[in-house]
Design brief:
The protein has five helices and no strands. By secondary structure, the protein is mainly alpha-helical. It has one domain. Helix 1 runs antiparallel to helix 3 and helix 4 runs antiparallel to helix 5. The radius of gyration is 16 Å and the shape is globular.
Length: about 120
């Protein structure tokens, strides 16, 4: 599945180009390198899970909550006008980014409630 592979790619970027991601970790969390590497690893793991039909539902559920948690960094970027990879977003761009996250959360939610191969079936 394309969305799962996209998460894998973004997660890998957390490891290969950590500076932009670390720069938007809220200061109150501390240890930006830790949070960056952890979120990147989880994106890779859950992204693979999303790409595999047998684990898609569970992975979508876990990614749903991960995206919500990572929204702290996106909110921090907006509130403190932090650049990401050298680019500061306008208010309009931030709103668009949040709208895209909303759509992404909706898609992940739909995948998380779909009955599929990773959902046990009961026979009566």
């Amino acid at each position: 599945m394309v969305l799962g592979l996209a998460f894998c790619r973004i997660g890998l970027m957390h490891w290969t180009n950590p500076e932009p991601f670390e720069a938007i970790v809220p200061a109150y969390l501390g240890a930006p390198s830790f949070w960056n590497l952890l979120s990147g690893a989880l994106e890779i793991i859950f992204g693979f899970g999303l790409a595999i039909p047998h684990t898609r539902r569970r992975a979508a559920r876990l990614l749903f909550f991960l995206v919500i948690a990572m929204s702290l960094a996106n909110l921090n970027m907006w509130v403190n006008d932090l650049p990401f990879n050298g680019h500061r977003l306008s208010s309009t761009e931030h709103v668009i980014r949040w709208a895209i996250q909303g759509v992404l959360l909706g898609i992940l939610y739909l995948y998380s409630i779909q009955r599929g191969k990773d959902t046990p079936t009961t026979s009566t």
